[in-house]
UniProtKB/TrEMBL annotation:
A GO biological-process term: base-excision repair
Enzyme's top EC category: hydrolase
Keywords: 4Fe-4S, DNA damage, DNA repair, Glycosidase, Hydrolase, Iron, Iron-sulfur, Metal-binding
SUPFAM superfamilies: DNA-glycosylase
Single GO molecular function: 8-oxo-7,8-dihydroguanine DNA N-glycosylase activity
Entry annotated with the keyword Transcription: no
UniProt domain HhH-GPD: residue ranges: 47-199
UniProt cross-references to PROSITE patterns, sorted A to Z: ENDONUCLEASE_III_2
EC number: 3.2.2.31
Domain of life of the organism encoding this protein: Bacteria
Protein's recorded name: Adenine DNA glycosylase
Length: 300
């Protein structure tokens, strides 16, 4: 942050307008309702990683109806979690969430722990998810840095269009510096900045006329200089191993009995890529090979 920018943007001057905007414009999402509880927050955080809200909503509702508590999921086969994950993408998240549910059941009596360190110790839980659950479910003071928040901070406080491709130490330091001191207000700030990035300060076609801190935004005040950093990562899918994996899993999700190799061979013509994708699914624990060349979703 330059000296000029620092005089334009201070933590205290940002908090009230952003939190006030959130109170008026926050979406009514099921994981934000009190009845969702910490488990609902955790499920949503797993599902929302690299996946838009509109795709998550129906899967989340079905998931919570089937497994309203961690113990309910832990008692079911991991393959059922993969099946219920549907087409959300990155299905290893389903296995990780199943593993977290088992650990919560075994270590914490079936209740999602409130301590950040205990959350971080759960399988499949990284720094972001632990901070998000502690903040959104338990109202604690943590820096919650997802893509949307990082973009808001990059523009408003640092004066650049996009944050780096990977989260940096400087970003974490800035996020901590911008946190309100009060726990509840810090939790509100975390949710509000995330929503601001999702709805207004978007990656493309940002709407500064709707932004509550446009008059303080370092990037806007600098004339919105174009991105000067490394090229931003694209999200290619067609023709990739991810697409092949998705097609193979779709066959297994729809099957009630083990699937023969021939059924999997039919989903992709190129044999080397198909075999590589299937081997990767097996290595990731998403598919279980059986005798006689048959495959199924994992039971254990």
């Amino acid at each position: 942050m330059t000296a000029t920018t620092a005089t334009q943007t201070t933590p205290a001057s940002l908090h009230a307008p952003v939190i006030g905007w959130f109170e008026q414009h926050a979406r009514d999402l099921p994981w934000r309702r009190p009845e969702a509880g910490a488990w609902g927050v955790m499920v949503s955080e797993f599902m929302l990683q690299q996946t838009p809200v509109n795709r998550v909503l129906p899967v989340y509702e079905q998931w919570m109806a089937r497994w309203p508590r961690p113990a309910d999921l832990a008692a079911d086969a991991p393959g059922e979690a993969v099946r219920a994950w549907g087409r959300l993408g990155y299905p290893r998240r389903a296995l990780r969430l199943h593993g977290a549910a088992q650990a919560i059941t075994e270590r914490h009596g079936g209740d999602v722990p409130s301590e950040h360190g205990q959350l971080l110790a759960l399988p499949g839980i990284g720094e972001y998810t632990a901070a998000a659950v502690a903040s959104f479910a338990y109202g604690q003071r943590h820096a919650v840095l997802d893509t949307n928040v990082r973009r808001v901070f990059a523009r408003a406080a640092t004066g650049i269009q996009y944050p780096p491709n990977a989260t940096t130490a400087a970003e974490r330091k800035l996020a901590r510096a911008l946190l309100p001191e009060d726990d509840g207000r810090a939790a509100g700030w975390a949710a509000a900045t995330m929503e601001l990035g999702a709805l207004v300060c978007t990656a493309k076609n940002e709407d500064c006329t709707r932004c509550p801190i446009a008059d303080q935004c370092a990037w806007r005040l600098a004339g919105k200089p174009a991105h000067q950093g490394p090229p931003r990562r694209g999200q290619t899918y067609a023709g990739t191993d991810r697409q092949v994996r998705g097609r193979l899993l779709a066959v297994l999700r729809d099957a009630v009995t083990p699937v023969p190799q021939s059924a999997l061979d039919a989903v992709w013509e190129e044999p080397v890529q198909r075999a590589r994708a299937l081997d990767g699914l097996v290595a990731d624990g998403l598919v279980e090979p059986l005798a006689n060349g048959r495959y199924r979703l994992p039971l254990t």
